[in-house]
Amino acid sequence: MVASAEQFKRMFVIAPYREAGFWMFDDLEVGLLQELLVKGTDTVMSLLAQHLGGVHEMLVYFSDEPVDEGLHAWLVEPELGGANYDIPELGIRAWLCPALFMYFDKVPKQLWFTARRAPGGRKEIPSVLRKIRGHMPRHRERSALYAEAEKERLLRPTPRPSEESWPWPYEVSEESRSGFTW
């Protein structure tokens, strides 16, 4: 597998894929869809994909606790709601966007990550992720926290604006409405 059984329990996994020339990933368990990987992170994904034989989708395992294999990233500075990390093995600085907080409560000082081929290709990724994440207590815990917050948000009543407070930039007269056909 990726690491020892104990290390595996402390990891997260995402499945980046390349589409229309961009690297992105979906993680519906935490509310992310087509989350773009940019500002150096896309270059890291391209290098990992090249190392795996030119794949267009892969599994990326990551943790804020040391693991035996893979790459090591060091926090340089927070930026734009996310954080910049130096990856000495690749000589790259990569920015991780605010989606980082879907997995960690605070910006990790260090990250360890590794990549593997996605078995079965992109169509199989959701079922592969479910199976892998079933053995990852940390992932289940974060997903449960997100699900609870989302449930709370959805159950909260949404106030309806009154006609007086509706922000129309202009008035619509009866004459102008009569010209429309639906």
Write up what this structure looks like:
The protein is of the alpha+beta class and 182 residues long. The protein is 27% helix and 28% strand. It is built from 5 helices and 9 strands, in the order H-E-E-E-E-H-E-E-E-E-E-H-H-H. The longest helix has 19 residues.
Features:
alpha+beta, 9 strands, six-stranded antiparallel beta sheet, three-stranded antiparallel beta sheet, globular, 27% helix, 182 residues, disordered N terminus
What topology does this entry show?
Blueprint (H helix, E strand, L loop, with lengths): L4 H5 L2 E3 L2 E3 L2 E6 L4 E5 L4 H11 L6 E6 L7 E9 L2 E6 L4 E5 L13 E8 L7 H9 L3 H19 L18 H5 L4
Antiparallel strand pairs: 1-5, 2-3, 3-4, 5-9, 6-7, 6-9, 7-8
Structural class per helix/strand content? alpha+beta
The secondary-structure element order is HEEEEHEEEEEHHH
- Low-confidence region ranges: 1-5
Largest sheet: 6 strands, antiparallel
Mean pLDDT score, rounded? 80
Gyration radius from CA atoms, angstroms? 21 Å
Termini distance? Answer: 60 Å
